[in-house]
Amino acid sequence: MALVGSYVGLSKLLVAVFPVLLLAWLRFGIAAIAMVHWVHRTADEPRLGRRDRWLLFLEAFFGNFLFSVCMLFGVALSSALAAGVIMAALPAVVALLSWVGLRERIAPRVLGGIGCAVAGIALVSLAQAGPDGGGSSLLGNALLLGAVFCEALYVVIGKQLTGQVSARRISALVNLWGLALVTPFGLWQAWQFDFSAVRGGVWVLLLFYALAASMATVWLWMTGLKHVPASSAGVFTVLLPISAAAVGVLLLGEHVSGIQFGAFALALAGVVLATWPAQRNAAC
Fold this sequence. Notes:
The protein has helices at residues 2-15, 20-34, 50-77, 80-87, 90-102, 108-128, 134-158, 167-191, 200-225, 230-233, 239-251, 258-275, 278-283.
């Protein structure tokens, strides 16, 4: 979760150099090369059925393609701090979509988390609105919120995928679908882009972004779940907004106003409320 927040924040540096669709194409391409050995089916894995293939496509369309486009355009028009606040709404949105699509019950504390998330997003949008770039910031925030819903759909759809296919193979196949979807746009922007003007440090940051977004975070999360109960794992999403905000303030020099600080506090409260294990509440 700390890696997710860091690459969400640092992507603001990348979109200042690369066009958004070219950046997404390069990310998927680099990750596809790195994960080529994850694509093949192992002897103990079943063949993918038609339903699984359709779900994998939807995973890639919402969770990779649309998420990347909305997130990168949103960060370009907004700020890393705003991205952290808005992305903190992910657990609450997942709960909301699970209620709509999977008929899962929403606990009162999750409703409180949704309320905190909405209030935090409203506050950070209010702080950015004004005569100097307020329209761009509001559009950027709307795109970031769209990215949250795309990622939440990714989680909800993922619940319906077969548990017999390894997480590594699913990640590799979803990444390949993302690469296929963005390739026409990436090639179009690459044709007009001057790659010789890109400095070495930017290429290193791009490599970190591609490997962190498509490989490292998935492996760390799935490996961690072997040792941490799933009911407790969601609490660690609190590190996403903290990491994104830290990148914005410490590395990008973004200023934190009183309203933004309040929005950040509400976002963190919303994450804790939406993900805190129910049995721990009962024990208290």
